[in-house]
Design a protein that fits this description.
With 108 residues, the protein is mostly beta strands. The chain has two domains: 42 residues, N-terminal domain of TfIIb; 48 residues, Roll (SH3 type barrels), CATH 2.30.30. Helices cover 0% and strands 29% of the residues. Strands 1-2-3 form a three-stranded antiparallel sheet, with no helix packed on it. The N terminus is likely disordered.
Length: 108
Amino acid sequence: MPYMSITAPACPQCSLKETHLSDETYICAICGYEWAAELGEAENIIKDANGTVLANGDTVILIKDLKVKGSSTGLKVGTKLKNIRLRGGDHAIEAGDYFIKQEFVKKA
């Protein structure tokens, strides 16, 4: 008999509540995103390419050239992004108008 009293949190990636608990991870039935059960709806731990934990307000440096959608220019390796904000989902770092995946930055 399933445990109906346990309610799974909404998916941090797509924000839908179609999630379920599997062993020690939550899984979204819609987008397939998986996250650790102990985090639940608490803040996700976001790490840079070297495994250093990032926090809001940190400064990061790009480790790869990135193309910017809708623009002929891009962001060059070594670009310093100051005062970042962390978000959930695939592009976890917000720096001004840019949303960047955490695997393309290192903490300054």
